[in-house]
Amino acid sequence: MLRFTGGSGYSYTRSFSHSLTHRFSPSLCCPLSHPFNGSARRSAHRLPDKLISDDHLADEAFGQLVNEAINGRNPLHNHRVLTPEEADQGVDPRYRDPQTGELLDGATSREARLDARTLKGRVNRNQIKIPQELSKVIKYNMLFAYEPRHFKQQAAQYYMALNENGLPKPADNELETDVIIATTFSQNYAVAYQVLDELRKRVGIEKFNPKKVLDCGNGPGVGMLALNELMGEGFNPVKKDVYVGGSYYMMRRAKVMLSRQVNEAGERGEASGPVDDVASAEQVTNAAAETVTEQANDSPGATILPETDVSDSVGDESPFFKVRTKNLHIKSVLLNKLRPKSRKYDLIIAENQLLKDRSLFPHQVDDQLDELVARLEPGGYLVLLERGNPLGAESIARARQVILRPENNEGRVGKVAREYRKRGTTERSEVEESLMEEASEQLQVEPEILENYDVEVQQEQSQDLAVNLRILAPCPHHGPCPLQYFNPNYYRYGQLGKKLKFCSFSINVLRPPYLLELKQGSRLATKWTDKNSGEGIKGLAKAGNGRAYGLDYETAHYSYLIVERSSEDPSELANLRLEEEELREVGYRSTNEEESPRVLAPPLKRKGLVCLDVCGPSGHAEKWYISKSTGKQDFHDARKVKMGDLWELGVKSAIQSRKENTFYMKRLQEKEAKLREMEKRNSDRLKRKIKKDYKDAIGTEVNEGDLEGRLRRMAKIDAYEFLKNERT
């Protein structure tokens, strides 16, 4: 309780509890008990210059109430007690639209000074928190069975492998499944929630209500979990499919975690597709269980842990237990294989699905993108999520290039939907595949036999297959990506590779209790530089000392792409593409809100000047300078911009950024040519050495007792034979 007493004899009281209380109550107090004593007696009709409280706390909102009382205004308009949720967000609900929940102008004292366009272009800045029920499930139903020291060792090895390869590895067994969930779920959930929240904001909170959802990933249905949490308890689409790659144990974990969400309870909506094409969750789970049982019988050492009955009460005082997933019923259908391409969705979420092997870049990205686009219905959205490292950014950039084909539309960068063409010309169309499936079911003929026959397709049906896509976020244009380098290995080219910039963003996520416990101690408290990282090496890295002064949050970096399949007439879109402007200079300002520049980095602030690194509607990476002369409102808002926001206000001047790929491509190609020449020289040198060693081995004789000499001679001969066979 804080009590402030003025010289006029009035006592202003403010109570602080778990929730913020805006309460003002004047009451007459005894002058003799006045805490200000001398100063109050000397000035009986005015407040002191500085109010002092027993706890030395000051509050701006309370000070405002006092100021209003001094000036004769009634401060009792703030009589309502805020809820903990409202206090946590710091926004009075009176400043929110009661229907959409969006912030109105002047939601807080800081936001009251911002322009409406600045507020509209903002992305979520609040720290993402893992729902408490999901955190409890991970802690009590998954991690309790492991010895902490051994589990931390496994987590450290996974972190090192992830840092070295740059790609998340699917789980192969139960231990790897729990390690992946414990180490990466919090960040993956935060990324999915952040991107889906932006999609919902750009489309419109009222309009965004997907009815057929597909979530693809190697984790425990992260995309579906984030979508359920974002949409609320009333979210009940007709179709909810969750593809879980990797181990069957990950599918079990996904079912347990999904069962903890309210909107997964009850009966599932009726599907509109063929009855034979719809599989229930129990059928899919039982089929996967049989597959795992067969794999366990075939592979030595594979075991399936026994399960106990499930309990609905999971809390701090609840016992630890395994969950029998067959007793759980959820609306989402868990799949270990994607449905046929005839099944369409209006929202597809793909987490780390574009590239699974670095050596297969970029062909695997093209193939995976074809599979996802083929299942997207007109008017639907495709959300691609990758890690915020060079490999993830290049995978996203490659998918964008395949969707837009900017090399075939030189000079046209407007955000008009473009026709998507599959890679190659020998692939069958969707109508052909659906007709083959129907014929196979009716005639009871294997699909492999029907592949040798041509299927007649009506011309009217082929027109409906035209797929026109456009990028909704984060790109403000449809031109070539200014931060794409077409080769992830360029980032490994020493000092030159370190200068390269890639498109990625970040969001803070609060560490749940299980993750705080996991990262206590020295093993997970240092940088991951080599195989011994995390243990503390003398002269290289100091051992961690627990959570004494550690952060309770971590930053998730990600690259993403939101794609929309247009439902407009293809002929009209073709005419719009012809009417596009062919040239846009640096600093171009578009009247279309969807082409507002995207801020790529935190702003550089100087006295009277702000510099923004943006991806502009001109198709270039640009530096925009906003000074006081640009406008008081523009200058103020520019200082409040964060990475990922859209900038719709004015600019003083703009130049092309030196971070764009055009300034590095020539040097990178020269570096690549030098490395190839060096590899060729080293290869030729090795071949000459092998030939020389072969001649020496043939011309010399080795004593029968000299075993080491005989082995060396045989190795030289085998190396030459291998080289000769390689040529043939």
From TrEMBL:
Q: What is its main location?
A: mitochondrion
**Keyword annotations of the record:** Coiled coil, Iron, Iron-sulfur, Metal-binding, Mitochondrion, Transit peptide
From the UniProt record, list the coiled-coil ranges. 661-688
Question: Do you know which InterPro entries this protein is assigned to?
Answer: Mt_RNA_Methyltransferase, Ribosomal_Rsm22-like, RSM22_mit_bud, SAM-dependent_MTases_sf
A Pfam family found in this protein is Rsm22
- One GO cellular component term, please give it: mitochondrial small ribosomal subunit
What are its GO biological-process terms?
Answer: translation
User: Residues annotated as region Disordered?
Assistant: 76-95, 292-312
Alphabetically, the GO molecular function entries are: iron-sulfur cluster binding; metal ion binding; methyltransferase activity; structural constituent of ribosome
Does Protein transport show up as a keyword for this record?
no
The protein's location, in the record's own words, is:
Mitochondrion
Q: Could you tell me which SUPFAM superfamilies the record lists for this protein?
A: S-adenosyl-L-methionine-dependent methyltransferases (SSF53335)
PANTHER family hit by this protein:
37S RIBOSOMAL PROTEIN S22 (PTHR13184), METHYLTRANSFERASE-LIKE PROTEIN 17, MITOCHONDRIAL (PTHR13184:SF5)
Explain the purpose of this protein: Mitochondrial ribosome (mitoribosome) assembly factor. Binds at the interface of the head and body domains of the mitochondrial small ribosomal subunit (mt-SSU), occluding the mRNA channel and preventing compaction of the head domain towards the body. Probable inactive methyltransferase: retains the characteristic folding and ability to bind S-adenosyl-L-methionine, but it probably lost its methyltransferase activity.
Instruction: Please report the name of this protein according to its UniProt entry.
Output: DEKNAAC102668
